[in-house]
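Schema walkthrough. Field components (list of strings):
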Amino acid sequence: MEALSSALDFSDFPRLDMIIAGVLGGLLVIFPATPHSAFAMATMIQFLMFSLYGMGWNTIGGYGGQVDLGKAQYVGIGAFTTAVLMVRWDVPFWVSMPIGVCFAVIWSFIIGYPLFRLKGHYFAIATIATSLVLKDIFEVWDFVGAACGIEISPIKYNPPDFLHLIFKEDIYYYYVILGFFFLGILYVNWFRKSRLGFQLRSIKDNEEVAKSLGINVHWAKIKTYAIATSFVSVVGSFHACYIKNIEPEDTMSLDISILIALMAMLGGAGSLWGPIIGAGVLIPLKSYLKEWLGARAGLIGIDLIVYGAIIMLVSAVEPRGIWGIVEKVRRRKRN
Amino acid sequence: MDILVSSLFAGLLIGMVLAMVALGLTIIFGVMEIVNFAHGEFLMVGMYTGLLTAQATGMEPLLTLPVAAAAGFLLGIICYFGFVKFVIRGPMVAQLLGTFGLMIFLRNLALLFFGAEDRAIHQGILVGKSFNIGMGVIAPATKLAAAALSVIAFWAVWLVINRTKIGKALTATSLNPQGARYMGISTERMNALAWGIGGGTVTIAGALLVNFWSVNPFIGLLFTMIAFAIVALGGFGSVSGAFFAGLAVGVITEIPGIWDFLTYIFNFGWMADVPMTSLKYMWVYLAYFVIMIVRPRGLFGWKR
Amino acid sequence: MGYCGEGAPEKAKLMALLEVHNLTKYFGGLKANEDISFSIKKEELVGLIGPNGAGKTTLFNCIAGLYPVSSGKIIFSGHDITALKDYEVARLGLARTFQVYVASGDMTVVENIMVGCFMRTRSRSQAKTRAEQIMKDFKLHDLSDYILSELPVASQKQVAIAAAVGTDPKMLLLDEVAAGLNPSEIEDIMATIQHIHYNMEITVMLIEHVMELVMKISDRVIVLDSGQKIADGNPETIARDPNVVKAYLGERYVHEHAGELT
Amino acid sequence: MKKLFLLTLAVCLVACWWITGSPVIAQAKTVKIGAIYPLTGGAAAAGRELKAGAELSAKIANNMMPGLDMDMAKNAGIKSLGGAKIKLIFKDHQANPTLGADLAKKLILDDKVDGMLGCYHSSVTKTVSAVCEQYGVPMINGTSTSPALTTRGFKWFWRTTPHDKWFTKDLFELLKGLTQGKVKGVKAVPEKEISNLASACEKTEWGSHVSSIIKSLAKEYGFNLRKSLLYTAKAPDLSSEVRSLKAARPDVMLFASYTSDAILLVKTLKAQKAKPKIIWGQDAGFEKPEFRSTLRDSIVGILTRTVFLPKVAQIKKVAGQVNALYKGKTGNDLGGASARAFTGVQTWVHILEKAGSTKPADIQRAANAIRIPGDQLVVPWAGIQFTPSGDELGQNVLGSGLIGQYQMVDGKLVLEIIYPFDVATADMIFPFKWF
Amino acid sequence: MAEHILQVKDIKVRYSSIPVIQGLSLAVDPAETVCVVGANGSGKSTFLKAIMGAVRVFDGEILFQGREIKNLKTEEVVRTGITYVPEERMLFTALSVEENLLLGAYTLNDKERIQENLQFVYSFFPRLKERRDQATLTLSGGEAQMVAIGRGLMSNPSLLMLDEPSLGLAPRLVDEVLDTVRKLKREGMTILLVEQNVRESLEIADRGYVLQTGRIVLEGTGEELIRSDVVRKAFLGI
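Field assembly_structure (string):
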């Protein structure tokens, strides 16, 4: 009960934030009712998915300060669990998703235990390595379709099939992921105020002090890593049903890992709104830059050049991301 | 037997070149403890520089090395003064994020200019030539030349670091930057120099590689990972460690060949079914992971 | 010299809370602590002094489980904590603060203290109530919502102590809490320590260079020099101990002022 | 000022909404066909070919071309639709299946296309066709050869090109023919001289399918597949793979690779002094102009399966005519990709002509009933007719493949047809000579 | 008043808004040995670092040989002729003794001069000559301090600043190090010494300053200070 009230309690944010968040949240709910293009819809779904990925990353990477660049492996675990279970045994999404989370969590414990003995750069690079190892294994593992990946046939189901999450129109997917999105916000809101959240922030601040306050730093990191993993795995499962054809090369590529980390870092790691802001800025930017400059003007890669430049700028000027700038401005006003 | 010998030989040969790819990374890390995620992109720049210079001028590809070195040196220094300098003041997250940004930036700049197609050099005195050494060992001339040049480059860098005043200053900066400043050494300049040398060596490696490997804008990451593995193996910041670790990683990339050899020897059916070639680079990543966990200072590490 | 613990006779009957037996710590070939033994009784306030590089912080780190000891034994309230990890030691009720602790994160004062309180509870509201109580005791409630890293060092140190107190410790190890503070801030921190000691009945051991503070509030003082324990006794005797004076002011000083020393 | 940033964010969001929300107004008298090809990315070269082939086909359909012996050249536009013009809307999928699916939705919902075309990479075709299936939009696939595509029971998906099983079977027929002395210019080869095979395919949807087909066919035809490996596509170095192949001492090497890998493979084979008697490529990279122009004379003797060779022009008049047009447009001869993209659009034209409507249901009916005679096509097929039921729903049953061999004729590199045996244009070079 | 070689006027230093040095003035004359004593945390080391440009000085003036050197970069300060032997010694541990010494002469370009200085240092510390090829990591504390001081002498400094050279040394070695300082003084070197070994260092010094919480609380000749109660109080609090 306390957890629920804590999750619903946003009172530590300024009133204006809450008004803006409320308005934007309302806009998200009514978005499908407004005139929009299919591309905008796809972009919005991407935005919600990456917000969720980013929220997951943010728990360990933002609050915990452990820069994880291997989240794609959990996208893969979630997506492939759902797809394999659905294709082979017709297991509904709502069953396969938690199973995927279990697998992801188990895997996160297996690699998390040694991983968290590393710090800083070494940790970040090692997460990349593990992700690539898993991707390579998936690419030769026949059970999960090897390099061909696995396809959820849309004609086997009669859309809208809420059980298996097979729909024709994107609007259904939109509301499903929007539901996850709001749940995710509530969860992170609870998390950041929970004991583990506090412990993690303390670890980020100073590990030795954290230990001196009785925190089992290694275990706290592993636990949080599992939480972050669950987020990613859930969205991965959703991704499988949404895209319907998943391949390791596509779902588990390093680009996905980087993108996930970037959402949160650019928006502001360690703040509730950071990943959402990051995804809100980057995903439309990416989609539309690619569409306008890439496809129309023939400037391929220009979206990512702009992307890279933004990242460089932010890291040099304000490493705490966009939210960091907002807070800086606010603090200056206050003082 | 042939396959084992030729695999090991090829592994060592390519290992020398890979070591050179990692050389710059280890120098930069040694001097300022920053991991450059854009390292592979520097290599890519080197490859394109070599390729385009050779194609534009019709020059022998091996003669483009000085051009590539100059380009890399310049790139390194520009990156340092234009960007890295501002990032190192920030927290580690900013450094990671920043060099990532650099990676994405450079990669897609290359995509914009050169397109996504793979390109390779098809002319040149060494291209396509190879020597049959016996025991089934066939040594392509380009790789032999690259390996030889890599050894020379290592030797040169080693000399610069150990025998010159500027090298001593670099070492001093890496060992104790504040102490170095008290000696009147401008650590700022040393950092820039480290980026210059780092960039220069890796672009040379790129110009060598392009003689036998094709290049596309996305090639960097693979090499960044390989370079990380080498640097981790050799000890972060160690030049001589990087050389031996390079050889080791070269051999690791030849694990499929070694596996083939074992398959022929033991002749178990299941062994032939293991998709070893598909997992070629997985061993490198795995090696990196295991080394980091078991010996974070690297197998040959000496540092501090 | 052999003053062992006689400085607080009225507490002598209380059992020892912390016992250190023959603790030795090497760093490579360097001997940081050599064969150090002492014990601290419940509700004692013990100062640990010594010149720079004497091995005081190393000793703290060994006791608190941050470093593994090379040899020796540490017993805390009946548990052998020699091999325990730092967080396990903390959970047994031995809290500590750090000499150099520059807050860098974005946590507020109340949040920092809550981290400590969370050691004994899972409930956020309980942790918060407890943290608020401590803040009141420490007169920090005005600063409650400030970001710690933006406060002056004196406040940061107060908060660090408050967070350690939040773990409900039996004993507190304080490492140079007064370093870098001005006299009035030192007064404040002294009041805080005394509050912890007398009102909260927490045993305190502190490393301190600010002698006004140590000498004034300690029941007993242990002196280290070059990794060895050279004296142990009440502040007055310590100040006149030739070994101590030698360690601080040099040998010649001792010779010339021999008359003033015991 | 205070919360300027958040406000800006909100404004941006709303702006994005507006811009993208504007509905597309359909133009009268055009049939819009969405074409999703890899215009950028690693397969951009193929993408350019595909686009050129499709564009040429649309141009012929939209204009009267008196000199051309093709039905669709005789009218301007689709006659049964009152001369409606074909309008191709190209999108770039960059070999990314997710992007492909997004683009398909965009084409279907935003651009309101009447049909789809594409996508070259089998993996992308898979996601795109799934979207089309869901929305009931007809899709014709001209270039993806993964057998899995037509086994999914899709009712809105038709494939004109033969798939890899057929192509690979062609190869084994050729090998069998070699032992029986059926090949032009080669005496019967003792079976044991070519019984050892080794294959290397790229680790993708397409490559791994080809690999498994080779495995099963080798067994069926009684060959000994001594090594079968998958390699990472677009790898910078393939020498260990080649060494592994070489170590198996195969007589025949089989590959499935896109352009850059194909070039690298052949270069490495040469550098490693590999000595197979036959090298066979499963189309894709092995017949691209880049492959030819980069490797030049070192590819003499290499076999590739294909659906179109310039030599076809000698057999088919219409192919020669179209090839001339294509060459005039791009400077290159028609290749497997461009010829099939051309045929894909042509199939669309015929289906639309037959349907007389752009209603999906009419198109579906027309497609299932279509029969385009072989003399209309540039590719050397018996025609186009789709299976309306069964395992391979929507597969063209009249397609067939060719096997060509690079040969030097008068100092020029040409692809000679050596299979099917009855249309062979030259003697086969056997065994393969490099050293 | 003689021409000061170093003159510090009312400087202030803060570490993130916390004042560490609050208006400190001090002067050193040529060939003079000046000692600054003070308890831990009184700002002694910070003061030397401020001169070296290693921490930012936000107010006041630092004149060296009449030239304003406030907030120059550290390496530029070194080039004006000040060397600093830091408290932590900051040896380049992986390098040999001789390499460390030669790095001390980094600002010099004249090879003969460098050799001369090297010989001078070796004659000054014969023990270092014996260990010239040994890595400094393996040296004992006293030897390491000799390398640090020797390194400081290698660039012919006009002013040598020593930051607690006896720190962490055994008593016998403390005497040895302080003897070195005495010898240097005899050589006519201008020295600014910061020490915890109050008594001995004040004996060596011509003049001394007592620093407490960032301020000079007492100033005088060494003799005067030794006799002062303030010194004892500053250290033992009684």
